[in-house]
Amino acid sequence: MGYRVSPVEVEDALAGTPGVGEVAVTALDVGDGVSVICAWVVPTEPDVDPVSLRGKVIDRAEERLAPYKRPREVRFVGALPRTANGKVVRRDLPALGGGGLADE
Description:
Layout: H1 7-14, E1 20-31, E2 34-43, H2 50-64, E3 73-76
Parallel strand pairs: 2-3
Antiparallel strand pairs: 1-2
């Protein structure tokens, strides 16, 4: 049994994390019908230490979200995909990759 988690709720909880410029959240398929919550993060600085920033994002999630709403994966990207009107295109996020734990 799965839970419905609002990406906006998770994004709001992670916004304001030091070092995070923007964040978008969606489900990420990891195989065999299993998906996890993934946060795609645009760092404020291009030369950020990904391990340190990932820790800050996870810590913020632990402070503000119930365990089942916390991202299990954090990926870093240069920019979020957007429509012509500026809305984030969540369905395009998985194609970005982004150096998550599964990629290491």
